[in-house]
Design brief:
Helix content: over 70%
Largest sheet: none
Shape: elongated
Oligomer: single chain
Strand content: under 5%
Distance between the termini: 83 Å
Radius of gyration: 31 Å
Number of strands: 0
Order of helices and strands: HHH
Length: 100
């Protein structure tokens, strides 16, 4: 009795997997086809082009703001406003000379 139940369950799971896989592929193909249609729509391509233009226009402003924020963060962390690069070699040599 238990063997029949396990066998029946196995057959049911296998049939469900096969049917579900076929249905899943069909739905995936349908979604992919629709997404492709939408992507190639002239209205969508115009919106994509406009968004690209907007990003190109705003990029210099964003870059400047990021540089200002990074500089302020550096000043806050290091406590100095020097523009020279700070390397770990400088702090390593300072540490090694004070411990000698």
């Amino acid at each position: 009795m238990a063997a029949r139940l396990i066998f029946g369950l196995g057959v049911g799971l296998a049939a469900g997997y096969v049917l579900g896989t076929k249905a899943g592929r069909a739905k995936y193909a349908q979604i992919k086809s629709r997404a492709n249609e939408v992507w190639h729509d002239p209205h969508v391509q115009k919106a994509v082009s406009d968004a690209g233009d907007l990003v190109r226009e705003a990029a210099p402003v964003v870059q400047e703001k990021i540089a200002d924020v990074a500089k302020a963060a550096k000043e806050k962390v290091t406590g100095s406003s020097s523009d020279g690069p700070s390397t770990s070699a400088d702090s390593t040599s300072a540490n090694s000379s004070s411990t000698s």
